[in-house]
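User: My instructor asked us to take a sequence, write out its structure as C-alpha cells, and then describe one feature of it. I'm not sure where to start. Here is the sequence I was given:
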Amino acid sequence: MGAKLRVYKRRIRSVSATKKITKAMEMIAASRVVKAQRQVAASTPYASELTRAVTAVATGSNTQHPLTTEAEKPTRAALLLITSDRGLAGGYSANVIKAADQLTERLRAEGKEVDAYIVGRKGVAYYSFRERTFVESWTGFTDNPTYADAKKIGAPLIEAVQKGTAEGGVDELHIVYTEFISMMTQTALGDRLLPLSLDKAAAESDGQAKGEILPLFDFEPSAEDVLDALLPRYVESRIYNALLQAAASKHAATRRAMKSATDNAEELIKSLSRLANAARQAEITQEISEIVGGSAALADATAGSD
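Assistant: Let's start with the prediction itself. The C-alpha cells for your sequence are:
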C-alpha cells in the first residue's frame, strides 16, 4: 500500500510542475495578445487608406494595369497561407490549413492551377509531410511580424502577378489567414488580394461606406505610374495586417489552450489527491488492523500460558 501512495505523490508533483509551466505560458500569451491587438489597430487605418487611394486611381482613370485588370480566362492562382511557427495553440493552425485546402479545391474546380506560398513552420511541415509542392516559404517571425517581413513576402508575389501566366506567373493572388475578432473568437478566412476588386475595395473604404463619391483626378506623371507605386504598398500593407491578425489570433488561441491545460491539471491534482488520501487511509486502517490483530494474538497467547 505504501508503494501506491508514493506513486500518487510522484504523479501529483509531476502534474504540479506541468501546471506551473502552462500557467506561465498562459500569462505570457495574454501579455503578447494585448500588444498584437494594438498593432492590428494601428495598421488597419494605413491599409484602409491605401485601399482607398488605389481605388481612387483605378476608378478615376481608364488605365489597364495588370494588378487591377481581370484576366479573361485565369488559369493560375497564387495562394499565400499564414500559419504559426509553434504549436500549443489548440486548433489554430489546423483551422487555417483546412480553410486553405477548401479554397484550393474551389480554385481547382474553376480550372485554375494553384501555387502555394507558406508562412510558418506548421504549414511547411503539413505540406512537406504530404509531399505537396510549394513555391516559397518564410518562417521564424510569426509571433512578432514586422513590416519588413511583409515586404519580403510580398515581393515574389507581386512579381508573379506582374508576369502573368504567359511568362510563368499567376493571374490571381489569394491570402488565407486567421482574422482576430475578439479574445474568444478568431476565424480562418480566405481573401483575394489581386486583381483588386474595385467594387469591394470601394465598399471597404471609409468614404464610400459613408456614401461619398470618389472624385476624378489628373495624374502626374501618369495613372499607370501611380498604380505602379501604390499597388505594391497596398499588397504589403494587406499582408502585414494579415500577419498581425494571425499573430494576435495565435496568441489568443495559445492563451485559451494553456488555460484549459492549467484547469485540467488542477482537476487531475484534485483527483490524485483524493486517491492518495484514500490510499493513506487504507494504509492506516491496515496498520491499525495489524496492531489490533497482534494485540489479540498476544493476549490469547498470554491467557493460554496461564
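For the description part of your assignment, you could build on this observation: The helical segments are 2-59, 92-109, 121-129, 147-163, 198-204, 206-209, 223-305. Try explaining in your own words what that tells you about the chain.
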